[in-house]
Design brief:
The protein is of the alpha/beta class. Helix content is about 30%, strand content about 35%.
Length: about 280
């Protein structure tokens, strides 16, 4: 639940919440799928909400976008055919566009109005759409991949939380479809929530992943403006240990990135004991 209390956007639920001071509402609309809001904040730049849930702020979006894109990219090593499911703001596309080796860069976003809003109000993320390799598909990602059996080297699922249109992307059936859509040696990565806030959902995602893939890892991302200050990326493959990068980040990209690096790749999968127990189903 989110409400506007004077100059504060307050996101709260399940006994936990946080607030961000805003200076101006830039945009609001109710699309077919969800409520879309964009604010200017006093400290954090622009703020994007979908159905009242914080999706990003300009202040720290780079942490999430870089890890969601480059961690699975380097886990694979050199994917040529890449799909992003969700990610309508364009941030993951922006990061992937840094890799000239990619030949096909598809995005499947269910809500065209998110793309339109990002292009108008979040151009620093939506610049990802400027890459001529990008093919936009307005569709349900859980259905789209069923027509792409054995096609992609890398699939990144940049979904909203499971309460909205991203709900079908959190089940075992979807992970089975992900596996079928990958080429031999393929890697997939999905937004995997926070073990502090949604431990049972994290366990559900890991269980679904292990039912379908040989190698499964939960990588932590520090994002201060997300509830609890962190979120995870579940990375999976049948062919390779995804906790070790297949190659180092090359220059000049290495010096351009603000969050991801080769050492952090492996470190992200090192978890405290309570998370290890959660991921082991205890």
């Amino acid at each position: 639940m989110t409400r506007l209390d004077g100059k504060w956007v307050i996101e709260a639920g399940g006994g936990y919440g946080q607030c961000i001071e805003v200076t101006e509402k830039l945009f609001e609309t109710q699309s077919r799928f969800q409520k879309i809001e964009i604010y200017e904040t006093r400290k954090l730049g622009k703020l994007l909400l979908l159905d009242g849930i914080i999706q990003l702020t300009s202040y720290d979006e780079f942490a999430y976008q870089e890890m969601m894109a480059h961690l699975p990219y380097y886990a694979h090593g050199c994917p040529e055919r890449v799909l992003v499911i969700g990610g309508g703001d364009g941030g993951v596309l922006r990061e992937l566009s840094r890799h000239p080796e990619i030949k096909t860069l598809d995005i499947c976003e269910i809500d065209a109005e998110v793309i339109a809003a990002a292009k108008k109000f979040l151009p620093e993320l939506a610049c990802g759409y400027d890459d001529p390799r990008v093919n936009i598909n307005i569709a349900d990602g859980s259905e789209f991949i069923r027509s792409k059996e054995g096609f992609y080297d890398l699939i990144i699922v940049d979904s909203t939380d499971p309460g909205g249109p991203g709900a079908p992307l959190f089940g075992a059936e979807f992970y089975a479809a992900l596996k079928l859509a990958l080429r031999p040696g393929g890697v997939a990565a999905t937004q995997a929530e926070s073990p502090w806030l949604l431990p049972e959902l994290v366990k559900q995602l890991i269980t679904a992943s292990r039912a379908n893939f040989k190698y499964v890892g939960y990588g932590a991302i520090s994002v201060p403006t997300y509830p609890t200050g962190m979120i995870g990326v579940c990375t999976v493959s049948d062919a390779r240990d995804i906790t070790v990068p297949a190659r180092e980040v090359e220059e000049p990209l290495a010096s351009q990135l603000r969050y991801y690096n080769s050492a952090l790749h492996s470190a992200a999968f090192a978890q405290p004991n309570f998370v290890k127990e959660l991921l082991e189903g205890r």
